[in-house]
């Protein structure tokens, strides 16, 4: 089986992919869209991409690409503890840092640290923390640092100038696993923590109580929602759809009941996936 992930080597997504799919061939992609295109076009059997961080919130690029461009079923979810390291080239003997490179989410997770230690440094956003570490390793002449993980420090031979620079200790990121072969590929493992069903709901029009009506359909069936998020439909200012995570797998009665009820009310309902979720520890993901 081929597993695509947001690369290059040394990203957090690689850690998550290793944690779930260690025995398979792991293939890095430079961007989230190219990784999702690869699974949509069956270049790989599954793809793993980040979806949400505990400090910074949703990875909008993943959500939007999934909704608007490549609607591949979600077949699994996985969360990983995130520890950010401040990495410089080993030949940067002055340890002077004028520019910091990383994924926007990684920089956002370290705002307090950066404001305190490097308030005047410039930031440059990159496609992933791994790309940033690779960039620093290729530019020994520049006074730059990457924010990335310890796997990247090893992979690109960088020196850890400051460890654990993320501002909140309970930093975690969730990733989703996508596959066209949702019937054939079953993910299992000892780190299984819960099951989830993700729905995308579009309201018929903007009227008072519309969202309340949607939520009631879940509430009276005692279906627990673990996330509700709105994203623009991209059809006009103020037009949104909702992404809702429901605890539990798609059953024969309750969730189909919600879908029929909401459709009868004129809502659009799409099931994006019904899947097991896993929680990895760093050691597990690093092996
Ligand atoms: O750049 C990486 O290492 C990624 O896997 C992406 C990503 C993200 O999109 O949030 C994943 C985990 C961290 O939160 C920072 C960056």
Automatic annotation (TrEMBL):
Keywords in alphabetical order: Amino-acid biosynthesis, Aromatic amino acid biosynthesis, Lyase, Phenylalanine biosynthesis
EC number: 4.2.1.51
GO molecular function: prephenate dehydratase activity
Endpoints of the signal sequence: none
Pathway: Amino-acid biosynthesis; L-phenylalanine biosynthesis; phenylpyruvate from prephenate: step 1/1
Domain ACT: 199-276
BP GO terms, sorted: L-phenylalanine biosynthetic process
Keyword Metal-binding in annotation: no
Family annotation (SUPFAM superfamilies): ACT-like, Periplasmic binding protein-like II
Catalytic activity reported: prephenate + H(+) = 3-phenylpyruvate + CO2 + H2O
PANTHER family associated with the record: PREPHENATE DEHYDRATASE P PROTEIN, PREPHENATE DEHYDRATASE-RELATED
Protein name per UniProt: Prephenate dehydratase
Gene: pheA
